[in-house]
Amino acid sequence: MESGAGKHWTEEEVKALLSVWSEKNIRKQLHGTLRNKGIFIYIAKRLQELGVCRDWKQCRAKYKNLKYEYRTVKYAHNSGDVTKTMKFFHDLDAILRYEPVTQLAAEENGRCSATETQLHTSPATESVQ
Known about the structure:
The longest helix is centred in the middle third of the chain and has 23 residues, at about 55-80. Helix content is about 55%, strand content about 10%. It has a domain at about 10-95. The protein has about 130 residues and is mainly alpha-helical. A two-stranded antiparallel sheet has the order 1-2.
């Protein structure tokens, strides 16, 4: 399967990316690292083994785009708009559901500090909180 810089990702390529991304060690590394070029080089190599020829920059761009689109749809659903949807939403939901997100919280002295919160929780845990 030949893929160049300007080519759109096929459904099979996205599925391969999601399968690598869904691995626990990959998710953990992606969450905890700001400079993640090495992780995406590894992901690109893994995709090559699966027959997907994409470089690390393409993998990172697709990862970021999928994550952005997922969060947009998730926010719409949480706001009551269930008409907004995307392909692979359920796959991404399984990957990203419990991913902690760093948020800035204002402290008493006026400075901000980073705090980790659960981005998505199940309805059962929401009622407990």
